[in-house]
Amino acid sequence: MSDLPSTMKAMVLTGHGDVDMYHWHEDWPTPEPGPDDVVIKVGACGLNNTDVNTRSGWYSKAVDEATTGGAYDEVDDEDPTWGGRPITFPRIQGADPVGRVIAVGTNADKKIIGKRVLIAGWIRDRNEGMLERANVTEADTVLIPGASGGVGGALIQLAKRRGARVIALASEAKHKDVAELNPDLLLPRAPEDLRTALGDEKITVVADVVGGDGWPALIEVLERGGRYTCSGAIAGPIVNFDLRTFYLRDLTFTGSTSIPQKVFHNIVQYIEDGSIKPMLAATYPLAELREAQTAFIEKRHTGNIVVVP
Q1: Which secondary-structure segment (H or E) carries 208?
Q2: How far apart are CA 65 and CA 56, in angstroms?
Q3: pLDDT per residue over 148-182, tens digit each?
Q4: Domain at 130-255: CATH code
């Protein structure tokens, strides 16, 4: 038995829909650890598109719109999540938490109680990982759409750390913030003619989380033998794909959801040694998750938004 309190505060998602599907509880049952489990008291949790898309039902194949965070009439509770299985409710979200271990199961090491932890909550296919799968090196020039977001900012820094030349696309209102990450070239979010805007740049890798109507232009600027890697589609999942460009230029496409375990450990090390830095846009109390997620969806921020107890 543990000394855990019987209840906890929680923002509970009750079904697919808009942010009004979140309900605040101050007496939600505290989970008891199984034999191999630990219980972590969350100190902070980053917001991400995965939680938004799961709540709204965007991963359903019935939806072909851009990520908006709203409700989709075509979706019901039996639609699969991005993992391919039906989702169940009620559920407590939060894929990117940090905190302290406060209880452990009978088979777990009791010495870790009280330890501060960062959580990598993935069931992994160890062959995935965005820059890892695209095999980015110092010989590459990497084009990063959506560079002002949390993932985009990380991609800039991690690609630079690999020695690559980095070209970032972001709305001009956010250029000052994105420039602090030192991309080699910073362009508007959607240039009227991307090839002209790039000038003599030779793009060997596109690292994309955007998709949408501008997607064909990203593929057209890839050099022969180039690589496209994708971990999101916030501007829309359905794109116009010319197979001739794909096969005549010998392009390689990779998808990325989970990451190899070493990547998580490496990123923590890079933050600790100052190689890369997190970009915190705003902090909200958990009870205001609806407001925090609304701000996240509006995309007026640079970096990421975090909720705290």
Answers
A1: strand 203-208
A2: 12
A3: 998 999 999 999 999 999 999 999 999 999 999 99
A4: 3.40.50.720
